[in-house]
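Private note to self, pasted from the team thread so I don't lose it. Backbone tokens:
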């Protein structure tokens, strides 16, 4: 365990995971999510993307490729490219769509996970070289990390808790 932590590329991957988890914690821990909280979460996702770019560069510069690092990076990518942006988008706008919003959020995360699993299988089969990650398939998940975060930074939206949700609400008392 210690030798994996002492590998410099893993420091950057760990920083990326921290940024993603902190962004998710910000939007989930706040009862009334305001634009300032969403902006902070988006900035954290962007910083996570920067750390993700740096971990690969450091691994190539120091020639410190490890299978552990590849797997850790994939976990960080699912969090940073899939779950964190999807959760921010859900809190920002998709939760108003009810089950459809949950479905869209799930689909985004699932696509990110499938794409990264495909990368891992290709990397194990040496079909996709680890040094440089030169082959990319659309959509690029680094771009996926940036798009919801940057979009949320640019699109103002009034958050109004008094507005009723667009789907029919059912209360536990009306179910009997």
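Design output:
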């Amino acid at each position: 365990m210690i030798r994996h932590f002492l590998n410099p590329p893993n420091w950057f991957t760990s920083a990326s995971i921290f940024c993603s988890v902190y962004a998710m914690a910000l939007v989930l821990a706040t009862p009334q999510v305001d634009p300032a909280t969403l902006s902070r979460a988006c900035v954290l996702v962007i910083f996570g993307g920067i750390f993700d770019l740096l971990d690969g560069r450091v691994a190539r510069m120091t020639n410190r490729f490890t299978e552990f690092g590849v797997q850790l990076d994939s976990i960080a990518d699912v969090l940073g490219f899939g779950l964190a942006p999807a959760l921010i988008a859900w809190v920002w706008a998709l939760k108003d769509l009810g089950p459809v919003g949950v479905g869209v959020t799930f689909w985004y995360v699932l696509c990110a996970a499938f794409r990264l699993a495909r990368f891992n299988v290709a990397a194990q089969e040496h079909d996709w070289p680890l040094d440089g990650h030169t082959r990319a398939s659309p959509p690029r998940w680094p771009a996926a990390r940036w798009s919801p975060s940057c979009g949320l930074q640019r699109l103002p939206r009034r958050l109004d808790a008094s507005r009723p949700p667009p789907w029919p609400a059912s209360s536990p008392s009306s179910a009997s």
